[in-house]
Amino acid sequence: MNRLGIIGAMEEEVEKLKELMDVKEVVKKASMEFYRGTLKGREAVVVRSGIGKVNAAVCTQILVDLFDVDAVINTGIAGSLQNRINIGDIVISSDALQHDVDATGFGYPLGEIPRMETLDFKADPVLVEAAKAACEEANPDISTFVGRIVSGDQFVSDKAVKEKLVENFQGYCTEMEGAAIAQAAYLNNVPFVIIRAISDKADDSATMDYPAFEKQAIIHSVRLVENLVSRL
């Protein structure tokens, strides 16, 4: 893993990572800005993909084609699907799938993309273990979980919908990009890991003020990535 592709969901998060980098160049492609340089002594490309599965997949493919990255790390926020996973906690992907894919009429399981021959896309075990250790060391004030991340082109806030995602997919959290990044990485045989800070609970309980959460999430995510890169 000589060159890392790091996809951040929040502009402020990307800004913090850029501050830690020795930036060599900025490449603009597909309305995205790719910052190439070194982070903790390792070659890295940092970029904000934008929202949704298409943006995320395009971003990942550019990282592979244009920058020849050896691994992809994706950070961002997600909604919890498990009551034990609290606001501010971190979920690290064991695997990812797209919950809004439905080809059951052709005999495929819900969530499976036809002719892909896999329901889910498994994260690299080395990256998963390194990310878990990095989070536990860098953010001892929160809990770290490893589990399935489910993605779709919809913002999920309804408790009943969340319960269905658990029933159908045993998901730990839900968001809008991770599984698309996972699929693009899978197709290119590039290791990946998805890291998500939890922004809301599965039980519709009251949440903290979002700007306060976002600031906290950025701090946790940047600490985690910095520690993770040092371990690889």
From TrEMBL:
Cited Pfam families: PNP_UDP_1
Q: Record's InterPro entries?
A: MTA_SAH_Nsdase, Nucleoside_phosphorylase_d, Nucleoside_phosphorylase_sf
Q: Which SUPFAM superfamilies match?
A: Purine and uridine phosphorylases (SSF53167)
Q: Does the keyword Hydrolase apply?
A: yes
**Entry annotated with the keyword Hydrolase:** yes
Q: Which parts of the sequence belong to the Nucleoside phosphorylase domain? A: 3-229
- Choose any GO biological process term that the UniProt entry carries and state it: L-methionine salvage from methylthioadenosine
Record-listed E.C. numbers: 3.2.2.9
The pathway where this protein functions is: Amino-acid biosynthesis; L-methionine biosynthesis via salvage pathway; S-methyl-5-thio-alpha-D-ribose 1-phosphate from S-methyl-5'-thioadenosine (hydrolase route): step 1/2
Superkingdom per UniProt:
Bacteria
- State any GO CC term: cytosol
MF (Gene Ontology)? adenosylhomocysteine nucleosidase activity; methylthioadenosine nucleosidase activity
Going by the UniProt record, its keywords in alphabetical order are:
Amino-acid biosynthesis, Hydrolase, Methionine biosynthesis
The identity of this protein, by name, is adenosylhomocysteine nucleosidase
Annotated organism of origin: Anaerobium acetethylicum
